[in-house]
């Protein structure tokens, strides 16, 4: 072996030893790192994603949470301002003067026909108010007593309109004279410009009151009289005026009490049946006339403060109810708005309790309504409840029992 080969072998041996030492050192360092670092999968943790930008709702919520005092003050200001605005608009609307149209010469132009119980407190107060507002009011009179009652009011533009509903041919002739009155020209005074009258509306005020009684105690004659006087007469008057209504695009208004019929209590079968028949009739009539551009409105009346009834009750010593009814002026303003507005509502709730009892009858189960009305009580308690309900109906202005006003002699 030569010296060069020995030197080469020595160098290779030294290199292998150095490599082994380096490998052992790195293995030792790696074992120490594995012992110090926690157990992981060996993968680097993912980089956190950037959160999406906050929405408008989140920004508002954060702002509200940071400014609670300012938010509370703003809400209080908005609530107070809204209530004040509503009160202002309501007061302004109630104080707004509602007057019918007049011609250039000052003559009245709009005609309103009121049909129903002539001496009814609601009807009489209504046609007197319409006459004061500037309408020419015709009240349908079926008897000479009704005609005399209307003339006793001593109003120039409050006139009776004779209609014989028993004889259709006579009624047609009487109505022909009324249509001729609308078609011809009128003069307020000599030299004034001619003007024509326009039928503004037909107001139906049937008397739906009935004496409380059980169904088994109501005779067929009573059923016939009630349906003829309250339902058939209303339908007959509507049919007679339909040609004039379509010609003048007049409004049709039906006024009925709704508190008692909505609850359908016992002992009021005639009243509930009458209300249901009239409601079905006005719904069908509204659907038919809507195609011809004629509006039909149903006024559902609640507790109203009728001055004539209140005076009579005080004179008779009847105790006054705890809750005072809605002033009668609200009904008069609503009727006027329904006659002159461009798009009147199909249903008007006027009077305390009208809207509430209407919702109760639609959404509450009949069993709960029956329990509220005293169903299932003992006979003695039921009789007492009936007597109290009858007294309450006669003493409450809003029950709209619509007693006849005694004519002053």
From TrEMBL:
Q: Which Pfam families match?
A: DUF1776
Q: Which key words are in the record?
A: Membrane, Transmembrane, Transmembrane helix
Which ranges does the record mark as transmembrane? 69-89, 109-128
- The UniProt record lists the keyword Transmembrane helix: yes
Q: Which InterPro entries match?
A: DUF1776_fun, NAD(P)-bd_dom_sf
Kindly give the Gene3D superfamilies that the UniProt entry links to this protein: NAD(P)-binding Rossmann-like Domain (3.40.50.720)
SUPFAM superfamilies (UniProt xref): NAD(P)-binding Rossmann-fold domains
This chain's protein is named: DUF1776-domain-containing protein
Supply the source organism's classification.
Answer: Eukaryota, Fungi, Dikarya, Ascomycota, Pezizomycotina
